[in-house]
Amino acid sequence: MNSDGFDWGTFLRRWQDEWVPSEDEAMELAEGETTLADLTLAAPPASEAEVADAERRLGTRLPPSYREFLLASNGWSLRDDSIHQLGAAHEIGWFGDPFGMTPMYRESLDERATEQEVLLAGMWERALQLETDSDMSYALLDPGDTDDDGEWALYVYKGWSGEYPTRYPSFRAYMRRRYESFHAERAPLPDFVNDTTRARDAEVERAREEALSGRREAARELLASAQRYGRPGAWGMLGQLDVLSRGVGHGGIFFGGLVADPRCTDELVPVMALAHVRDSRPGRSERPFALGVETDDGVRAAADSILARVRDGSHRYAPDGAFGQAVAEARDAARRGDTDTAWRLIRVALPSWQPPAPDLLAPLGLLADPVLGPVVTRERGLELLATPRAGRAGAIPEPVPDLDPPGLRWLAEPQRWNAPHRSYRCLWVEGVEPEALPGLVGEDGGAGLTAPPVRPAGWFPYDVRPRDDSAPWEDRAVVAVGRTGSGWAFGFDTAPRASEPRTFFVSPAAGASRGGRAVVLWVRRGHDDTSAVFHLSVAERGEERYAYTLRGTDVERSGQVPTALDPDHVLRGVDDADRERRLLGAVQDEFGLSLPRHALAEGILPQLTTRSWNRAPREGEAFAYATVTVTPR
Predict the structure, then answer these.
(1) Between the CA of residue 422 and those of 410, 469, 548, 613, what are the distances in Å?
(2) Is 432 in contact with 613 (CB distance < 8 Å)?
(3) 290-328 per-position pLDDT tens digit
(4) Based on C-alpha coordinates, what's the Rg of the chain?
(5) Mind giving me the DSSP string for 393-406?
(6) 597 φ, ψ to 5°?
(7) What share of the chain is helix, strand, coil (3-state, %, to 5)?
(8) Which terminus of the chain is more exposed, N or C, with fewer CB under 10 A?
(9) How far apart are CA 247 and CA 14, in angstroms?
(10) Beta-carbon neighbour count of residue 102 at 10 Å?
(11) What is the Cα–Cα distance from 156 to 166, expressed in whole angstroms?
């Protein structure tokens, strides 16, 4: 036993005692080609003299963990890897780089090379070769790559793979990993049960309790250990923790055998379907939707139905009980743009969530809901995991900060790639619900609010739709619709087709204000030789009360613009860089207006196509436009 309590004799005996033949070895035994004695892993221990002789021959003292191994077993059979046999003390020798790997690795080094890359390039000529039988693979101890305990790093190079060698910090680390892999290879065997498997399964159960109690890191550490041993329950639980910690990206989501349990379908399969849809490439045939495990026909049919709903945006996460009621209320808030309130509703209800199956750890189905999924950011996913659930006790974590800044000034800040950009416009109508906007500003004969289009991962809200068959002077906005906390319905267009209000522009404020007040805002930022434009119009009871359009420093007004909104007053002494922010702040303060940044940036709000913001040209007026078509080579 060494100083940290590791005993090679105990470790190797346990490995030998737990060993059972693989399928191929069982067939060889059945056919009488081998005996159990032929398949023994261990060898008799080397004597101190045999190890000392090897060290004199090699001209160096062997690293501690390898030396102690030889004194416990002078060689070892590794039957589940490309390294088949580790040699005895008298069989090991210097590798000597017989294949000329050193020049190839050194040629790839430059001034940016890491210390580890430099060590690897020199490893081939100085390494000690341990294996005596392998599948074109080599176990190499590097005396140039050492730690404070005198251990040498061990590299496994699989010559047929074309990959870099796998590095282990010591011989002991390598053997422990091989022991874990031995267990993982045999985990599916129904009779493979021993003290180690029972201990790892107990870790999985402890991890479940830790996770439900809000202790994610403790749960993950236990599950990672059990997963290396191939314990079935660990895969599904680790997959859940990983998805909530990192979010749903492209493909690569695996929940192990949990997916085959019909009780888990509504929580797990939608997340896998979302990753599958995001992984699809336009114009290419879609890959089959693989669940990763064999399932019955009922689960497969449910999965196909879920995939179709996720793809067309109609999927809804609807759990049972008090948590399900909170989810429904949260979705209603998020559909109106109030994603911060939506998250608060979910967060308060989290302790009441009950897993439909024992190994479910959290309400993952939230992530695949087209409205609520974007509400659960990575930071909120971590907050969810830190919140005790399913009746478990534990400390409630500090809430993560809200996402939406108040008011409108944030529109003037440097924009993210998928937030409002160089030109945007918006209308607000006081005292009405979003569902009323189609009747106030919707295109003639048009439908009501529609769901937002299904977006790929990394979507990009530039308006790339082809011009429709409407008259060329028409300018119909496609606006995202919601409701502010102060009771105004709004419609926001992130990408106006026209860059600014011009000759034929007619503000929709008058038509929108038939029941009260309406405010219209249109902003275009200056660029190169074009001036910034800021338009504001306000109407009440069907009539425009006042408006102004600021182009650079020139102002066109109509009606009596209040002093608090007049650009001459608002911009007095203001630098050019702060003009948009000051004007937005004045509008915000005058009317108590706001916009939900997160809901707009994530594209989760319902949409409405408005009537044209341009009037038809009158007699004697002309209207012209140009279409530019870019054809790839």
Answers:
(1) 14, 26, 20, 19
(2) no
(3) 888 889 999 999 999 999 999 999 999 999 999 999 999
(4) 34
(5) --PPPPPPPPSPPS
(6) -60, -45
(7) 40, 15, 45
(8) C
(9) 40
(10) 15
(11) 5
Cα separation of 45 and 259, whole Å? 47
Q: How far is the C-alpha of 455 from the C-alpha of 275, rounded, in Å?
A: 12
Q: d(Cα 194, Cα 16) in Å, to the nearest integer?
A: 12
Q: How far apart are CA 348 and CA 340, in angstroms?
A: 12
User: Is there a contact between 425 and 523 (Cβ–Cβ < 8 Å)?
Assistant: yes
Q: How far is CA 237 from CA 150, 185, 187, 206, 299, in A?
A: 38, 20, 17, 12, 19
Q: What is the pTM of this model?
A: 0.86
CA distance linking residue 251 with residue 248, whole number of Å: 8
CB 255, CB 235: distance < 8 Å: yes
Stated as kind and residue range, the H or E segment containing 196 is helix 195-212
pLDDT for residue 626 is more than 90: no
The separation between CA 92 and the C-alpha centre of its own chain, rounded to angstroms, equals: 47
Per-residue buried b or exposed e for 180-210, using 16+ beta carbons within 10 Å of the residue's own CB: bbbbebbeeeeeeeeebbeebbebbeebbeb
Give alpha helix (H) positions in 280-420: 297-312, 321-335, 339-349, 378-385
Distance CA 534, CA 574 (A): 15
**What average pLDDT does the chain have?**
90
Report d(CA 489, CA 433) in Å as an integer: 6
Structure tokens at 446: 């048009």
**Of the ranges 23-27, 140-144, 606-610, which one carries the lowest mean pLDDT score?**
23-27
Structure confidence at residue 632 as a pLDDT band (50, 70, 90): low
Give CA separation, 40 vs 363, 566, 605, in Å.
48, 91, 66
Tell me the backbone φ, ψ of residue 145, rounded to 5 degrees. Answer: -120, 90
Dihedral of alpha carbons 250, 255, 257, 260, sign: negative
Q: pLDDT tens-digit profile of 520-552? A: 999 998 877 788 899 999 999 999 999 999 998
Is the confidence at residue 468, as pLDDT, over 80?
no
Handedness of CA 70, 75, 77, 78 (dihedral sign): positive
Per-residue pLDDT, averaged over 250-268, amounts to 89
Q: What is the mean pLDDT of residues 275-303?
A: 85
Cα 622 from chain centroid (whole Å): 51
